[in-house]
Amino acid sequence: MTEKKNDEILHDHNHDGVDRRGFLKCMAWAGTGALCVMQGGVLKSYSMSRMSEMKAADMAGELSFAQISDSHMGFNKAANTDVAGTLKAAIDKINALPVAPEFLLHTGDISHLSKPEEFDAVGQILKGASAKEVFYVPGEHDVLNDDGKEYLERFGKGATGSGWYSFEKKGVHFVGLVNVMNLKAGGLGSLGREQLEWLEKDVKPLKSSTPIVVFAHIPLWSVYPEWGWGTDDSAQALGYLKKFGSVTVLNGHIHQTMQKVEGSVTFHTAASTAFPQPAPGAAPSPGPMKVPAEQLRSLLGITDVKLVRGQQALAVVDSSLA
Amino acid sequence: MRRRVCIAVVLAGLLVGMEGSRTRAGAEAGKSPASAQQKPAMMEVKIDNFSFGPATTTVAVGTTVTWVNRDDIPHTAVSTDGVFKSKVMDTDEKFSFTFSKAGTYAYFCSIHPKMTGTVVVQ
Lengths: 322, 122
Fold this sequence. Notes:
Chain A is an alpha/beta fold. Chain A has helices at about 20-30, 55-60, 85-95, 115-125, 150-155, 195-205, 235-240, 295; strands spanning about 35-40, 40-45, 65-70, 105, 135, 165-170, 170-175, 210-215, 245-250, 260, 265-270, 300-305, 315-320. Chain A has a single domain (about 65-320), classed as Purple Acid Phosphatase, chain A, domain 2, CATH 3.60.21. Helices cover about 20% and strands about 20% of the residues of chain A. By secondary structure, chain B is of the alpha/beta class. Chain B is globular, with a radius of gyration of 20 Å. The model of chain B is unreliable at about 15-35 (pLDDT under 50). Classes of the chains: A alpha/beta, B alpha/beta. At the A-B interface, loops of A face β7 of B.
């Protein structure tokens, strides 16, 4: 998992000497609910409990959104017999964030078996979020029948192909990609030629200073290929994003948080709101991981993302449900 | 109307009668070891821990292979050559396919494509 290249050093755009140790230290605090904000080129961290003491200027991240993932509505086995309850807890957590997110991203596996009632249930629970706008990408559990017909009818309006699309929010360009269709035997996630061609055209006219956020279900970097935790043709997609100074890739699928920085690209996976999965290679298979009931919520979570205008990397903070 | 009903009843009666005799003939054939009509062979493949067990299974032509999902996550069994394609199997659900032609049939789980298996039919 650890790599010797300099890909763990935050891109030094401001020649501020923010080094790997400072950045990783900040990211380690993220597990306890810390906020890392780049201000004047210096990475500052604030614990969630001191949020109220912060000046409005400190907190004026100009764009704020939250990511949830892998709600698996319909799952009812031992690892979590109440996925609706834990999803509600995740929404409560989002509603309690010090800076309200403007919208939500759901990075897939919304449902467990692509059933209409499962999608309905998630929609109902998300109505309780303070942020009313939700953007989705499908997970492999969402497209089980008829090439994802149920998913597309609900969430595919304005999207192309099997559901990819892009949109702008306050000068940040968001791209929702689908890498769970037409999977090949023995393979990983797959974007496919049509989607890659679309992506190339979609980002070509953008200025290199435009912050980019890409979200897709399966990780777009090679987390653990043995378990299918990667995307066969993601390198090509990332190639089209090389010119941009700030790229944030948000994924789900692996039901645990993981982060990697490679040049100006920050890769991040979110926890599930339903059940945890084992760390790469830590179990015979990547299935639902049963933990004592009192520990479950500490292994589920949400992700809060802020763009602080003028700074390069977005601040990505995970917090668990307990 | 009454005549039509009569004809329908007669036809139904004939069909039931034929069905009954066919069943009797089948049962009698099964008792005789030298009979040309043999009981179809069955093979079970257990799905658990994101894997097919056994990963490779060799069966005779005419065997019905039944995949049973004992995992706590849904899986599928899909032939890479389009020969068979199961619906999604949740825990304890099954899918069966009868292999009437010899050959090597590679398949995988379309939800978790790293899960692969082979049925060799001889």
